[in-house]
Amino acid sequence: MRKTESNFFYIQPIVVSDYLIFDNNYRAESHFFHMQSEEMYMNEQYAELIEAAIAAKKFSYSPYSLFRVGAAILSEDGQIFKGCNIENVSYGATNCAERTAIFKGVSEGVKSIKAIAITSDEEDFTYPCGICRQVICEFGTEVDILLVNNKGETRMSSIKELLPNSFSKETLLD
Amino acid sequence: MRKTESNFFYIQPIVVSDYLIFDNNYRAESHFFHMQSEEMYMNEQYAELIEAAIAAKKFSYSPYSLFRVGAAILSEDGQIFKGCNIENVSYGATNCAERTAIFKGVSEGVKSIKAIAITSDEEDFTYPCGICRQVICEFGTEVDILLVNNKGETRMSSIKELLPNSFSKETLLD
Amino acid sequence: MRKTESNFFYIQPIVVSDYLIFDNNYRAESHFFHMQSEEMYMNEQYAELIEAAIAAKKFSYSPYSLFRVGAAILSEDGQIFKGCNIENVSYGATNCAERTAIFKGVSEGVKSIKAIAITSDEEDFTYPCGICRQVICEFGTEVDILLVNNKGETRMSSIKELLPNSFSKETLLD
Amino acid sequence: MRKTESNFFYIQPIVVSDYLIFDNNYRAESHFFHMQSEEMYMNEQYAELIEAAIAAKKFSYSPYSLFRVGAAILSEDGQIFKGCNIENVSYGATNCAERTAIFKGVSEGVKSIKAIAITSDEEDFTYPCGICRQVICEFGTEVDILLVNNKGETRMSSIKELLPNSFSKETLLD
Fold this sequence. Notes:
Helices cover 23% and strands 24% of the residues of chain A. The first copy, chain A, is an alpha+beta fold. Chain A has one domain (12-160): Cytidine Deaminase, domain 2, CATH 3.40.140.10. The interface between A and C is medium-sized, with 15 and 15 residues.
């Protein structure tokens, strides 16, 4: 693995859960939104984060939708926490994978989130629902959102793109 | 009132709840998030919708946050339904003004939403939280979102702008 | 209709939505969870409330569960508000019929609830979920809960029975 | 420590977080509900569970209510998971301590819950809200609920007592 700049690496093709995730010189592009960097090489932490999200899906409790989701957060201090969706017969008390991962981290002392990875069994990318976007922005305004489909292909977005003009904590706390 | 184009009107200055809301030649543009409210043409239905949102705030049940919100939806078939935020000691069972208005309409037969207006007691515009954005997009992909501050100034956005790449019903129903 | 005591009436058999709901001498008792519905006196308002709950089911938006629920509240000042369940693709943003009815009433000025009726398409009685019980107890500690099955049979309970030792607003407001 | 019967122990006074929790021959009594056993000696696992709930409160994220709650679950297979309340500016996206603990366990493979302990900074016992009761009963019909106040005094209840006639998963899955 050859270092290219401070935080990023050229990475060799890696296999995660039987899927080829990254080719050499992997370039994350957001076709619909302006990315901070047009050429972003995936760093090692993000590869690990994606692997965690895929693994997290295993414990999905989704007897009502049969729609399995896995997620993982990377905290600002470098820890990874995994989560799956956990449904409830009432529907309203259902918890998404993203929130499960966030709640796990926060309950262990995480104060701020750097990135979150999300995956399902679908070929379409599974974007976070509005509730999860709301919870993400409570713990970071610069959170990268990594989407992974069932082929291991990835797309990258951010909480600013996915929840612009958020109803944020300054509203009540200032 | 002089007609200018298909759906819009030049409107005279009108007073809603003691606030001057619209000047002549008010023009609605929603290319991005930053609006030129000074150049917004407002149609008659939207003026009525904003008035309804402001009136709806009256019944806000917000003993925990003391943050009053009012909202109103305009259904595709031209009906207006008002809602306020209704808090709960558990916090999690709290319902926002936007959802109250939507639930009222849907429970009376509304299938699709054309626009929603939102207001609070703040000078800053109060944008819908992520949960409400999620519920809005269940009932329309082309919903206009009208924000009104405590001075009666307005800004216009859309659900597409505020919840891009939504986790939408096609995900589970297709 | 012959008056028997302050609030209750002997009522003639009435037909609601093609179901025979009340026989003469129907008497409401709620000592425990299992009711003797044969000995239940039902007053006129409660008969109307049950009819409203059954009618409310018509607008149920439940494409994910296909489980239709209708509810109606009777406010302390004698008004009736109807609600249906309104689901969301995120599941978590789903709203039950009971809460829809309550939010409608509160947003129209209701401060306190006297009773709520709940029905579904099932022969088993459909009890309110925990979220709805939490919202009910925000607006009354003495709320009667009327359950109606698909045969029009009724059972009566109360919020005190269904959410004992509730996490109540005094916890945060005192 | 002297064994008395299959699962229970006479325990010596133990100090948890500076509070004296159990005296010798500690007897859990439910004054308001009929307990399965009128004389229940606290077992070792339950003492550890209560200690975990008190410790969990440390990471409470509650900037809006300033009401800190800690909880911990004991899974059927003997694992303990800790949770705290994690609030959100939207209020509705708030997660209670009980659910945080449950979601953590389930996302690590827990299928069934044996007991949950709950504590806050109050002298009054903090009972679970309706949402949490709904989530508890998704993962067990025989869950013991241990309440601990700020003096380390305990009270014991059960999900059957706190959410009778629950809206349960058989409703949708059968």
